[in-house]
């Protein structure tokens, strides 16, 4: 069992940072990298085996819109991995094995309008290849243990990413944003989880409601034959128009043993899940 970390953005907000601009947590790669390191450290110390880098919403084009020159944007993207690796290595004195997963969010995340919860961006596969490949190459060159290709709402985008993963020949997990037993773009999960790639080491879901996890884990294990990754949100919902979270949080710690029994070998949290939640999860599954 591998315990993943929780949300980066909520942990940074809890430390007093305003992430309301389009760069979201990626802005702190430039403005406060030490704060990102502090969040990684908090999750590791809470029992997480993996730190997920602050690169989910980081791209050359996104930084360019904020006035960041290309060479600086590329440096910031690679720094997301460097920061996490440095924290991991600092903690290595305790003898525990820890890993760094380089976050690769969907194209919709860069649009900063909630498109990662809808998919179907109105662009073709060639456009998506051109968008994703440069940052995949930057992240891999920085030396993570694997890629966390996450919150993918659309099977077509996942297909592009899996092709690129195979071309680069680097290990990755691929996880979808789902709702009600389908991808956010409306495709059947059986189709989504039919990933045929030796470089994809796990498939699953993230950034979804806890109640959507069990069925998805069972399907992912049956369809893919691979280990399953599962890291849902707190249960709150994202209001893209108001740029805020709504509803009540729920504790999914009690649900996690059933996910593990169904095939989830990588379990953690996503948005609004913090270090205390990961500590409880690690105790439950440890």
TrEMBL record:
Residue ranges of every copy of the Hcy-binding domain listed in the record: 1-285
MF GO annotations: S-adenosylmethionine-homocysteine S-methyltransferase activity; zinc ion binding
UniProt keyword list: Metal-binding, Methyltransferase, Transferase, Zinc
Cofactor(s) annotated in UniProt: Zn(2+)
Top-level taxon: Bacteria
Biological-process GO terms, alphabetical: methionine biosynthetic process; methylation; S-methylmethionine cycle
Details of cofactor binding: Binds 1 zinc ion per subunit.
Binding site for Zn(2+): 207, 270-271
The keyword Methyltransferase belongs to this UniProt entry's keyword annotation: yes
Coiled-coil residue spans: none
Protein name: Homocysteine S-methyltransferase
